[in-house]
Amino acid sequence: MGSTGLRRTLGTYREVIALTGPLLPVVSFLGRLPTATIQFGSVLLVARTSGSLAVAGLTGGALALGQVACGPLVGRLADRHGQRPVVLACSLLNALAVTALVAGALAAPPTPLLVLLGALAGASVPLIGPLARTRLVALARRTGAPDATVGAALSFESTLDEISFVLGPALVGLAAVVAHPGHALALAALLVAVCGTGFALHPTARATAPARSGPAPESPAAPSRPRMPRSVHPLRAALALQGAMFGACQAGVTALTERLGRPEQAGLVYAAMGVMSAVAGLAMATVPARFGLTARWRTATAAACALSLPLMATDGLGALYAVVTVLGVAYAPHLITVFGLTERVVPRARLAEAMAFATSALVGGQALALALTGRLAESHGPGAAFAAASLAAALACAIALTARPTTYSGRAENPLHARVPEKPGRP
What we know:
By secondary structure, the protein is mainly α. The chain folds into two domains: 22-150 and 166-208, MFS general substrate transporter like domains (Growth Hormone, Chain: A, Up-down Bundle); 228-427, Growth Hormone, Chain: A (Up-down Bundle), CATH 1.20.1250.20. The chain has helices at 3-20, 23-50, 53-81, 83-107, 111-123, 128-142, 147-178, 181-201, 232-259, 266-283, 293-308, 317-345, 351-380, 382-402.
């Protein structure tokens, strides 16, 4: 990247931060960090207190299932009632639920109770990441910002997600080595209570408040709730497959590092991939506008498919670091592009729900693939898990090549969206 391009990119990101001020990105990052902490932390905590990996896996699975099942509901409530009351309530509930999970694990209750506590911790996640995307896009559209700024906003938010999902497990692992994983979860409860509340009460929450004008909801003249277009379903499927690819890679990396006698390296391998993904995400702001979202989607999925193939032949630690780090180049660009397409194809009145559903698809695909390919790796070796990751990438690529995402028709009435139509089949 030349100096002119670098200055232009930095200027674009300054425009993004200017939409909210510098405080909100800090608060939203710290508020979403617990989401990355509690999944891994719950498994480590229950494994240590119960002495059973099976019970730990059930608790972690219930937590993921709770988030996947209730995430779209949280988004829908945010669309209907605004982010402020929903995030405030969920942040406080999640802090209590995580605290209860820690207390329950330390008390060694029956397995069904632990599973229930895990499910409650997952169901009450405030989804600050998806809602921060929705808020930032709403602010950009309201001010008439160009598409480059909207794209940079999505890149910025995806990068914060990547950093949180690298730093969260690392903090849990450090706490487990130095003291106890319960300490990391206690910190997560404190962070979600304080920073989730800060995110909810920040003045920018008004940007996503539901409109108060027009006839009352019970009036016969009131407009019906807009339907979600069919073109959003391939995007959700692609995110679920990306999650499956990541989950399968996790299983393969864990199995290979254990086979090599270096299980402690697994977390560092994930971190290397996450760092590269974050760098690629930030660089997305430099992609020319003429290279449209559909073309970016297809390119990212094709790159993920091609770059995942060498994993099946990887049998050494150095090669694993190299291959997985390079593979990270495809992750964030795919996430950013699919979230960008989602923002275009859904009605504005249901944007938070759509973003939450997209995140749930990603989390659900990862959790399911990790559970299935973990057993596959135990039975047939890490290569089998890596083959499953490549298969998921190939299916995501097939979806991207055949899908025809189109801009939501209702946006033609909004001058802020009049400039961004994308015809079917054209990038």
